Amino acid sequence: MNIVKRNDAFLPSILDEMFKPDWFGGTESRLAPMDISETDSAFALAVELPGRKKEDIKVTVDKGVLTLATEANKEKIEEGVRYTKREITHYAYKRSFSLPDSVDIEKIGVSYEAGILRLDMPKKAELVQPKRTFEVR
Predict the structure, then answer these.
(1) Per-residue pLDDT averaged across 105-133, rounded?
(2) Is residue 47 assigned to a domain?
(3) Which helix (DSSP H) or strand (DSSP E) does residue 15 occupy?
(4) Which residue has the higher pLDDT, 129 or 104?
(5) Are 17 and 82 in contact (CB under 8 A)?
(6) Alpha-carbon distance 96 to 94, whole Å?
């Protein structure tokens, strides 16, 4: 499974400090933390998406690319309340991965519980080879 990796050591830390949130009045965008693991028979992916509803999460596979997306708007404005800053009204997250050919797309399992989105992606049966140990002579 391939993802684009960010090289934090590329830019000096002074630039990181200059472009922190509020430098231009905006907010910092971060990717949700995730774990990707592999066994002999499957890949597993777990993504932290706290506070989301199952119906707000969209998981798709198109042409070998797995895409995770969620978006929510909270446009509720309380009467008599003046906000000096309002950042929690909109949340959007989208991340894509190139799946290896060994993933059996028809058998991908998706669940969401306690703020964690989990994907179980079994490998195709014909590509799963049993582990063998050989005697050294």
Answers:
(1) 89
(2) yes
(3) helix 13-18
(4) 104
(5) no
(6) 7
Q: Which residues pair with 60 in a beta bridge?
A: 67
How far, in Å, CA of 92 to CA of 69, rounded? 8
The total domain count for the chain is 1
CA distances from 75 to 72, 86, 94, 101 (A): 10, 11, 21, 42
The rounded distance, in Å, linking the Cα atoms of 47 and 116 is 6
- How sure is the predictor about 131, in pLDDT bands with cuts at 50, 70 and 90? confident
Residue 102, domain CATH:
2.60.40.790
**Would residue 80 be called left, alpha or beta, if left means φ above 0 and alpha means ψ between -120 and 50 degrees?**
left
Q: Is residue 56 part of a domain?
A: yes
Examine residue 66 and state whether it is found in any structural domain, yes or no.
yes
Q: How far apart are CA 23 and CA 6, in angstroms?
A: 21
Percentage of the chain beyond pLDDT 90 is: 40
- Length reported for the chain: 137
**What gap in Å lies between CA 49 and CA 117, rounded to an integer?**
7
3-state SS string over 95-121? EEEECCCCECHHHCEEEEECCEEEEEE
